[in-house]
Specification:
Layout (H helix, E strand, L loop, with lengths): L1 E8 L5 H12 L5 E7 L6 H10 L2 E6 L11 H19 L5 E5 L5 E2 L1 H7 L6 E3 L2 E4 L2 E9 L2 E6 L15 E4 H5 L17 H7 L7 E3 L12 E2 L21 H6 L1
Parallel strand pairs: 1-2, 1-4, 2-3, 6-11
Antiparallel strand pairs: 4-10, 5-12, 6-10, 7-8, 8-9
Helix pairs in contact: 1-2
The structure holds uridine-5'-diphosphate-glucuronic acid (UGA) and manganese (II) ion.
Protein backbone atom coordinates (compact mmCIF):
# COMPACT_ATOMS: atom_id res chain seq x y z
CA UNK A 1 0.00 0.00 0.00
CA UNK A 2 1.30 3.42 -0.94
CA UNK A 3 1.37 6.19 1.69
CA UNK A 4 0.96 9.64 0.17
CA UNK A 5 2.03 12.41 2.55
CA UNK A 6 0.94 15.96 1.69
CA UNK A 7 3.01 18.74 3.25
CA UNK A 8 2.52 22.48 2.70
CA UNK A 9 5.67 24.44 3.49
CA UNK A 10 6.92 28.01 3.24
CA UNK A 11 9.98 30.12 3.98
CA UNK A 12 10.39 30.61 7.69
CA UNK A 13 13.59 30.49 9.75
CA UNK A 14 12.84 27.03 11.18
CA UNK A 15 11.65 25.50 7.90
CA UNK A 16 14.86 23.64 6.93
CA UNK A 17 15.13 22.28 10.47
CA UNK A 18 11.51 21.13 10.39
CA UNK A 19 11.75 19.58 6.94
CA UNK A 20 15.04 17.85 7.85
CA UNK A 21 13.44 16.28 10.90
CA UNK A 22 10.39 15.22 8.94
CA UNK A 23 12.52 13.88 6.06
CA UNK A 24 14.65 11.87 8.48
CA UNK A 25 11.50 10.22 9.82
CA UNK A 26 9.81 9.60 6.47
CA UNK A 27 12.95 8.03 4.97
CA UNK A 28 12.41 5.04 7.28
CA UNK A 29 9.07 4.28 5.62
CA UNK A 30 8.85 2.21 2.46
CA UNK A 31 6.31 2.75 -0.32
CA UNK A 32 5.84 6.41 0.51
CA UNK A 33 5.40 9.37 -1.83
CA UNK A 34 5.97 12.81 -0.32
CA UNK A 35 4.01 15.60 -1.99
CA UNK A 36 5.51 18.90 -0.84
CA UNK A 37 3.91 22.19 -1.89
CA UNK A 38 5.84 25.38 -1.51
CA UNK A 39 3.69 28.38 -0.61
CA UNK A 40 5.61 30.75 -2.84
CA UNK A 41 6.27 32.02 -6.35
CA UNK A 42 8.84 29.29 -6.99
CA UNK A 43 10.24 26.11 -5.49
CA UNK A 44 13.30 26.56 -3.28
CA UNK A 45 16.56 24.78 -4.29
CA UNK A 46 17.54 24.03 -0.70
CA UNK A 47 14.27 22.15 -0.19
CA UNK A 48 14.60 20.34 -3.50
CA UNK A 49 18.07 19.09 -2.47
CA UNK A 50 16.73 17.99 0.91
CA UNK A 51 14.00 16.00 -0.83
CA UNK A 52 16.55 14.40 -3.13
CA UNK A 53 18.72 13.39 -0.16
CA UNK A 54 15.83 11.57 1.52
CA UNK A 55 15.86 9.00 -1.29
CA UNK A 56 12.07 9.02 -1.17
CA UNK A 57 9.73 9.31 -4.11
CA UNK A 58 8.55 12.89 -3.98
CA UNK A 59 6.81 15.65 -5.89
CA UNK A 60 7.76 19.24 -5.14
CA UNK A 61 5.39 21.88 -6.49
CA UNK A 62 4.87 25.53 -5.76
CA UNK A 63 1.50 27.22 -5.30
CA UNK A 64 1.36 30.63 -3.73
CA UNK A 65 -1.73 31.05 -1.56
CA UNK A 66 -4.51 32.46 -3.75
CA UNK A 67 -6.59 35.44 -2.67
CA UNK A 68 -9.18 34.69 -0.04
CA UNK A 69 -7.57 31.51 1.35
CA UNK A 70 -6.24 31.41 4.93
CA UNK A 71 -2.43 31.48 4.93
CA UNK A 72 -2.14 28.20 6.74
CA UNK A 73 -1.62 25.59 4.04
CA UNK A 74 -5.26 25.25 2.92
CA UNK A 75 -4.62 26.24 -0.67
CA UNK A 76 -1.47 24.10 -0.91
CA UNK A 77 -3.33 21.00 0.29
CA UNK A 78 -6.03 21.67 -2.29
CA UNK A 79 -3.43 21.87 -5.05
CA UNK A 80 -1.91 18.63 -3.74
CA UNK A 81 -5.28 16.82 -3.74
CA UNK A 82 -5.81 17.83 -7.36
CA UNK A 83 -2.30 16.63 -8.20
CA UNK A 84 -2.92 13.29 -6.51
CA UNK A 85 -6.23 12.85 -8.37
CA UNK A 86 -4.53 13.57 -11.70
CA UNK A 87 -1.44 11.42 -11.09
CA UNK A 88 -2.59 8.60 -8.81
CA UNK A 89 -1.85 5.90 -11.40
CA UNK A 90 1.80 6.87 -11.88
CA UNK A 91 2.25 7.35 -8.15
CA UNK A 92 0.89 3.88 -7.38
CA UNK A 93 3.10 2.08 -9.89
CA UNK A 94 2.76 -1.63 -9.09
CA UNK A 95 0.84 -0.98 -5.91
CA UNK A 96 -2.94 -1.24 -5.92
CA UNK A 97 -3.98 0.64 -2.79
CA UNK A 98 -3.08 3.97 -1.30
CA UNK A 99 -3.73 6.18 1.70
CA UNK A 100 -3.44 9.96 1.94
CA UNK A 101 -2.13 11.80 5.02
CA UNK A 102 -1.75 15.55 5.62
CA UNK A 103 1.49 16.03 7.53
CA UNK A 104 2.48 19.61 8.27
CA UNK A 105 6.18 20.43 8.30
CA UNK A 106 6.54 21.45 11.95
CA UNK A 107 4.83 18.51 13.68
CA UNK A 108 6.80 15.67 15.28
CA UNK A 109 6.19 12.17 13.97
CA UNK A 110 7.00 8.74 15.37
CA UNK A 111 7.89 6.48 12.45
CA UNK A 112 5.30 4.01 13.80
CA UNK A 113 2.56 6.49 12.87
CA UNK A 114 3.25 5.51 9.27
CA UNK A 115 4.18 1.84 9.65
CA UNK A 116 1.54 0.84 12.22
CA UNK A 117 -1.34 3.29 11.75
CA UNK A 118 -1.42 5.00 8.36
CA UNK A 119 -0.38 1.92 6.38
CA UNK A 120 -3.30 0.00 7.90
CA UNK A 121 -6.03 2.54 7.19
CA UNK A 122 -8.85 1.07 5.11
CA UNK A 123 -11.14 4.08 4.76
CA UNK A 124 -10.69 6.72 7.44
CA UNK A 125 -8.15 6.14 10.18
CA UNK A 126 -7.98 8.36 13.26
CA UNK A 127 -5.70 8.58 16.32
CA UNK A 128 -4.55 10.81 19.15
CA UNK A 129 -2.61 14.02 18.59
CA UNK A 130 -0.70 15.66 21.42
CA UNK A 131 -0.12 19.36 22.15
CA UNK A 132 -3.09 20.63 20.17
CA UNK A 133 -6.43 22.38 20.56
CA UNK A 134 -5.58 23.96 23.89
CA UNK A 135 -5.05 20.62 25.61
CA UNK A 136 -2.36 17.98 26.17
CA UNK A 137 -3.91 15.22 24.07
CA UNK A 138 -6.87 15.21 21.70
CA UNK A 139 -8.21 11.70 21.20
CA UNK A 140 -11.31 9.68 20.51
CA UNK A 141 -13.63 8.06 23.00
CA UNK A 142 -13.77 4.52 21.60
CA UNK A 143 -16.64 2.24 22.61
CA UNK A 144 -16.80 -1.27 21.16
CA UNK A 145 -14.32 -0.32 18.47
CA UNK A 146 -16.26 2.75 17.30
CA UNK A 147 -15.81 6.44 18.01
CA UNK A 148 -18.59 7.47 20.39
CA UNK A 149 -17.34 11.01 20.93
CA UNK A 150 -14.21 13.11 20.92
CA UNK A 151 -12.00 13.83 23.89
CA UNK A 152 -11.16 17.36 22.80
CA UNK A 153 -11.39 20.69 24.54
CA UNK A 154 -12.05 22.85 21.50
CA UNK A 155 -15.37 22.51 19.63
CA UNK A 156 -16.17 18.85 20.47
CA UNK A 157 -19.46 19.08 18.53
CA UNK A 158 -17.71 18.91 15.19
CA UNK A 159 -18.64 15.79 13.22
CA UNK A 160 -14.88 15.16 12.91
CA UNK A 161 -13.18 16.84 15.86
CA UNK A 162 -9.60 16.12 14.93
CA UNK A 163 -6.46 17.98 13.89
CA UNK A 164 -5.01 17.60 10.41
CA UNK A 165 -2.31 15.32 11.86
CA UNK A 166 -4.85 12.93 13.40
CA UNK A 167 -6.36 11.16 10.43
CA UNK A 168 -5.63 9.54 7.06
CA UNK A 169 -8.00 8.75 4.19
CA UNK A 170 -7.89 5.91 1.70
CA UNK A 171 -6.84 6.94 -1.79
CA UNK A 172 -10.12 5.41 -3.08
CA UNK A 173 -12.13 7.96 -1.11
CA UNK A 174 -9.93 10.78 -2.41
CA UNK A 175 -10.30 9.58 -6.00
CA UNK A 176 -14.06 9.02 -5.77
CA UNK A 177 -14.77 12.57 -4.57
CA UNK A 178 -13.80 16.07 -5.65
CA UNK A 179 -13.69 17.60 -2.18
CA UNK A 180 -10.89 20.06 -1.48
CA UNK A 181 -10.14 22.66 1.18
CA UNK A 182 -12.28 25.75 0.65
CA UNK A 183 -11.67 29.28 1.83
CA UNK A 184 -13.63 28.88 5.06
CA UNK A 185 -15.04 26.16 7.29
CA UNK A 186 -17.76 27.60 9.52
CA UNK A 187 -18.74 24.13 10.76
CA UNK A 188 -15.23 23.73 12.14
CA UNK A 189 -15.35 27.25 13.63
CA UNK A 190 -12.49 27.96 11.24
CA UNK A 191 -10.66 24.63 11.45
CA UNK A 192 -10.70 22.88 8.07
CA UNK A 193 -10.64 19.18 8.95
CA UNK A 194 -14.34 18.49 9.52
CA UNK A 195 -15.38 20.28 6.32
CA UNK A 196 -13.04 18.21 4.16
CA UNK A 197 -14.11 14.89 5.67
CA UNK A 198 -17.82 15.80 5.56
CA UNK A 199 -17.46 17.01 1.95
CA UNK A 200 -15.88 13.65 1.10
CA UNK A 201 -19.14 12.03 2.19
CA UNK A 202 -17.55 10.34 5.20
CA UNK A 203 -19.57 9.57 8.32
CA UNK A 204 -18.55 9.24 11.94
CA UNK A 205 -19.25 5.49 11.65
CA UNK A 206 -16.50 5.25 9.03
CA UNK A 207 -13.80 6.10 11.54
CA UNK A 208 -11.26 3.37 12.29
CA UNK A 209 -9.68 4.36 15.60
CA UNK A 210 -6.03 3.41 16.11
CA UNK A 211 -4.10 3.08 19.32
CA UNK A 212 -6.94 2.14 21.60
CA UNK A 213 -6.74 -1.62 21.46
CA UNK A 214 -4.75 -1.49 24.69
CA UNK A 215 -5.74 1.74 26.44
CA UNK A 216 -3.55 0.89 29.41
CA UNK A 217 -0.30 1.27 27.49
CA UNK A 218 -1.32 3.43 24.60
CA UNK A 219 1.17 5.88 23.18
CA UNK A 220 1.00 9.07 21.19
CA UNK A 221 2.59 8.86 17.75
CA UNK A 222 2.23 12.49 16.61
CA UNK A 223 2.73 15.83 18.34
CA UNK A 224 1.44 19.13 17.05
CA UNK A 225 4.68 20.90 17.91
CA UNK A 226 4.84 24.48 16.71
CA UNK A 227 8.03 26.06 15.52
CA UNK A 228 8.64 29.37 17.14
CA UNK A 229 10.07 32.37 15.36
CA UNK A 230 13.61 32.55 16.79
CA UNK A 231 14.94 35.89 17.98
CA UNK A 232 17.44 37.44 15.59
CA UNK A 233 19.55 40.55 15.74
CA UNK A 234 16.92 42.95 14.44
CA UNK A 235 19.44 44.98 12.44
CA UNK A 236 20.20 41.93 10.32
CA UNK A 237 16.62 40.84 9.78
CA UNK A 238 14.68 41.92 6.72
CA UNK A 239 10.95 42.50 6.60
CA UNK A 240 10.24 38.80 6.18
CA UNK A 241 12.11 37.90 9.30
CA UNK A 242 15.18 36.56 7.53
CA UNK A 243 18.86 37.35 7.65
CA UNK A 244 20.54 39.03 4.71
CA UNK A 245 19.85 37.68 1.23
CA UNK A 246 22.78 35.17 1.32
CA UNK A 247 21.58 33.57 4.51
CA UNK A 248 18.07 33.41 3.17
CA UNK A 249 19.19 30.74 0.68
CA UNK A 250 20.35 28.51 3.52
CA UNK A 251 17.08 28.81 5.39
C1 LIG B 1 -2.88 24.19 12.53
C2 LIG B 1 -3.15 22.81 11.99
O1 LIG B 1 -2.24 21.88 12.50
C3 LIG B 1 -3.08 22.90 10.48
O2 LIG B 1 -3.11 21.63 9.92
C4 LIG B 1 -4.24 23.77 10.01
O3 LIG B 1 -4.22 23.95 8.63
C5 LIG B 1 -4.10 25.12 10.66
O4 LIG B 1 -3.95 25.03 12.07
C6 LIG B 1 -5.33 26.00 10.41
O5 LIG B 1 -5.61 26.86 11.21
O6 LIG B 1 -6.05 25.83 9.48
P1 LIG B 1 -0.56 25.47 12.78
O7 LIG B 1 0.42 24.56 13.40
O8 LIG B 1 -1.23 26.46 13.64
O9 LIG B 1 -1.66 24.63 12.01
O10 LIG B 1 0.07 26.28 11.53
P2 LIG B 1 1.40 26.05 10.70
O11 LIG B 1 2.13 24.82 11.08
O12 LIG B 1 2.14 27.34 10.72
O13 LIG B 1 0.80 25.87 9.23
C7 LIG B 1 0.20 24.66 8.78
C8 LIG B 1 0.93 24.18 7.51
O14 LIG B 1 0.76 25.16 6.48
C9 LIG B 1 2.44 23.99 7.71
O15 LIG B 1 2.89 22.86 7.00
C10 LIG B 1 3.02 25.28 7.13
O16 LIG B 1 4.33 25.12 6.60
C11 LIG B 1 2.02 25.64 6.04
N1 LIG B 1 1.91 27.11 5.80
C12 LIG B 1 1.71 27.97 6.83
C13 LIG B 1 1.99 27.59 4.51
O17 LIG B 1 2.17 26.81 3.55
N2 LIG B 1 1.90 28.94 4.30
C14 LIG B 1 1.72 29.83 5.31
O18 LIG B 1 1.66 31.06 5.06
C15 LIG B 1 1.61 29.32 6.62
MN1 LIG C 1 2.07 23.51 12.63
Amino acid sequence: KLIIVITPTYRRPTRMADMTRMGNTLSHVKDLHWVVIEDGQAVVPQVERLLQRTGLNYTYLNAKTADGYPKRGWYQRTVALRFVRAHAKEMLGNLTKGVVYFGDDDNSYDVRLFTEYIRNVKKLGMWAVALVGGTAIESQNVVNGSVASYKVKWNPRRQFAVDMAGFAISLDVVLNTTAVFGKTCPRGLGAPETCLLEDMGLKKEDIEPFGYDKPSDREVYVWHTKSQQPKFDKAKVDVNGFFAENDRDVL
